[in-house]
């Protein structure tokens, strides 16, 4: 699954770089993305010096050098492994609301070509959990409170030792900001994600399952493994 997704993303990157000077991409930070990112870093024929990178969310309240920060995870798994033109980290300190506004301005400077994302156990995309997801959000980046299922997923994914260690708030790209990207690549492994995938594919398009909005995007590719596939294939 990860290799198949990386192959498609690499092909899309090569095609985009052949027709335009620069590419702008947004990446999710999660163990579910690790295999895809490893394969993407190994892909040949990509001029990363013409690619600008963003990430889609970040915790509020962790120490700047905390290994659990998404920026740090992406540094280790992607940003430090290929020579990007620019890497734009979300830095919540010292004022998270001001940081969200600054990041929105960076994103708005030019179109976002590609987004590499996943789906949470509760159906979230980025940190747009069902209680806070807004398909008509007027903001591009905002501060949100994480719901309990989202926080528990971080423990189940071995990102934190205990539930109480998971921050209660984060900065996230909103649903409309993600959906405006030219092309989406959604990588979703694991049995814990099966119900969320089923709701995304076959349930109502509703903020009760934020990822259901992906069905309205004109160019979104979904990558599943046998465990996450609700049809068991």
UniProtKB/TrEMBL annotation:
InterPro entries: Glc/Gal-6P_isomerase, Glucosamine6P_isomerase, NagB/RpiA_transferase-like. SUPFAM superfamilies: NagB/RpiA/CoA transferase-like. Keywords: Plasmid. It comes from the Bacteria. Gene3D superfamilies: 3.40.50.1360. Residues 3-216 form the Glucosamine/galactosamine-6-phosphate isomerase domain. The keyword Methyltransferase does not apply. This is Glucosamine-6-phosphate deaminase. It comes from Devosia neptuniae.
């Amino acid at each position: 699954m990860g290799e198949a997704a990386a192959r498609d993303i690499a092909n899309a990157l090569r095609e985009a770089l052949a027709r335009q000077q620069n590419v702008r991409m947004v990446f999710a930070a999660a163990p579910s993305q690790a295999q895809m990112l490893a394969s993407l870093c190994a892909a040949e024929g990509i001029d990363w010096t013409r690619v600008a990178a963003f990430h889609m969310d970040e915790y509020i309240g962790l120490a700047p050098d905390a290994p659990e920060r998404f920026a740090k995870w992406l540094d280790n798994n992607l940003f430090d492994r290929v020579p990007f033109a620019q890497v734009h980290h979300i830095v919540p300190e010292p004022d998270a609301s001001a940081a969200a506004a600054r990041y929105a301005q960076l994103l708005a400077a030019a179109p976002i070509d590609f987004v590499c994302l996943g789906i949470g156990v509760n159906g979230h995309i980025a940190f747009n959990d069902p209680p806070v997801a807004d398909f008509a959000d007027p903001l591009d980046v905002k501060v949100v409170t994480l719901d309990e299922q989202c926080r528990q997923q971080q423990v189940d994914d071995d990102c934190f030792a205990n539930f109480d260690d998971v921050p209660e708030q984060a900065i996230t790209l909103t649903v409309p900001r993600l959906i405006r990207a030219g092309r989406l690549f959604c990588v979703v492994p694991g049995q814990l994600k099966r119900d969320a995938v089923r709701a995304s594919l076959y349930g109502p398009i509703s903020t009760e399952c934020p990822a259901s909005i992906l069905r309205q995007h004109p160019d979104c590719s979904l990558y599943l493994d046998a465990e996450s596939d609700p049809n068991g294939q």
